[in-house]
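Checked the freezer inventory, then went back to the computational side. Two predictions to log before the end of the day. The first one is the construct we discussed on Monday; recording sequence and tokens without edits.
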Amino acid sequence: MANRILTEPGWEGRIRDKVGVNDATLPDAVLQSPDVIGVAEAKVIAAIPHWQSLTGDDRIFLEAATVCMAAIQVIDSMPARLPTRMQGPGMDVTLEIDWKERRAALQAERDEYLGRIDGSDSTGGIGGFWLAGPSRRR
């Protein structure tokens, strides 16, 4: 199935840049799978029903939100893909990346982009839920 939002060549690199990895760590085949780009685009389209009519800055925000959503789709697999410690003769490198924090940052960025699209209502969130504080009303 062809992409509906990210149609320009090189869209895979945009997602890798957002996650902060190279193509050896996150190959094109993973990003092109329906579980990643297909689901990401479907979620963004569900949030912005009039997505096909967007132009200019709104289209840029739509694409940026889709890139963030695709990055969110793969972020949970990153601890398994990227070793936390690498050792070799004369070197010992430890990577301390909080992937849950990175996921939260990507979600906030995605929501900001969706909120900037004219006429959209992204207050419901995507793929999450909002908690309200305790109520003392009777």
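The second is the one RB wanted added to the comparison set:
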Amino acid sequence: MRISQLVAAGLGDEEFENLMAILANLQGDRAAALEGLRPYLDRGDLAGAAANLLAAETLAALRTLDAEHAPELDPMSLFARSAQADPYCALTYWHAGRYAASQADVESAWQLFGIPPRPPLYRLCPCRPPFPPPSRS
């Protein structure tokens, strides 16, 4: 499915349109994007993982301009919640490591760069176990 087909299918759906507005704000009005992501932060599914990752990155960017922006939120906690909801998303560890390094926490950064777990083979392979036995010819 193409992205244009996905967008066309979602038009008219209020929640989808709200999410698209939030994603558009990530490039412009980051504070509005962060506020738009808040309702999704408590979700424990993949959508919650994505929301926490985006919120952590957005908050880190906002804090470069205003160190006191959203003091009730902590970027590392948001990264951790994202990793808990989707432990196989290597980008979560990468961005968390970059954030830790930017905060001069080099040890944590290197740990984060080294811990993305490898997904089970069945998540990578289009075929499902049990695999057929090798042929003996």
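For RB: Helices lie at 3-10, 14-25, 30-37, 46-65, 75-85, 90-102, 106-114, 121-124. Residues 9 and 16 are 10 Å apart (CA to CA). Let me know if you want it refolded.
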